[in-house]
Give the backbone structure.
Amino acid sequence: MIIRKSAEELRAMRRAGLVVARAHELVREMIRPGITTLQIDQAVEEFLRRENAVPAFKGYHGYPATICASVNEVVVHGIPSADKALEEGSIVSVDIGAFVDGFCGDSAWTYPVGNVSEEVQVLLRVGEEALYRGIAQAVVGNRLSDISHAVQQYVESFGFSVVRDFVGHGIGRQMHEEPQIPNFGPPGRGPRLKVGMTLAIEPMINAGGYQVDVLQDNWTVVTRDGSWSVHFEHTVAITDDGPRILTSLQE
Ligand code: MF3
Ligand code: CO
């Protein structure tokens, strides 16, 4: 069952989303060569707690940290570590989830560390635009897979690939609600989108092949071919006026 939210519930979802957006601003300002992913994790956790928000990932199926910090060929679920100092020319995908007043916001962004190569700049731009292409399909009357299809079409036209093994999701009082939202597939399938649905749309894009592996720690997801990967995610509400991004800084 897809849980639709009332106007009042959407206001709470926006409060959660805004805290997550502000946490990303903090991350953006912190990222520089030499900083460790654990330092970023600790700063985000402090920020969230100061805002009376509860980290959504910590303890989730035993996940040990507040953020996921996934460097270069790591696709998602990289565990922050004091041993992982960011290097010039790298990329890091930072995923942040938080509960405020019982509702969850979830957003991921891939940041360059210093100057990155032209090819990586293209990968970053395509990943971000793929998210917005998906969001643009989150309108009343469309079907769920119209989102999936828009993402895949756009990404593959650049010769990049879309990760199949991890998907976006409904979100609300739980971080993960129905439906699952693949980033690939034919259009016109799945449930019809309705006002009040809230979706975490989160394409994961590999520069090479779509295959991934999970490392021995049972969390870290890497590309099988070692190619670099980006991850862009927003929590979005479907409204009569179109998609409303709940995890953006500005209205
Ligand atoms: N954005 C990711 C998701 O939707 C973050 C989950 S990380 C986890 O699943 F550690 F909480 F699993
Ligand atoms: Co998510």
